[in-house]
Give the backbone structure.
Amino acid sequence: MGVSIPLWFVPHQGRVKAAAYNQQAAQSYYEYHQVTLNGQMDQALQQYAKNKSSLEYYRTSALPNADLILRQSQTAFRSGEIGYAEYLIGVRNGISIKEGFLQTLNDYNQSIIYIEFLAGNK
């Protein structure tokens, strides 16, 4: 009477366990990157909302004020009410506001591009 144990069973069992561990590692890797992507998307959406709010501020309030500053500086300089130095300060302030608007517009567009990137859109 003898017991026969197939020799191929032990190596096969080891490969099955290795495949199960590889599957578990791949699942953990996937879940980690999924959480990371969701966090990046949430952060990108918050940045988009902030940029949209800033852009709306510039369009409704800051840009009209910048135009007013530029017009008043030019009018006051032409009429002689202010000197050249005050005129330049007014022009610098008006242009600085417009530059801030352009930077905010760029940030807004970049946030949209980044959201589309994270969403997988081209």
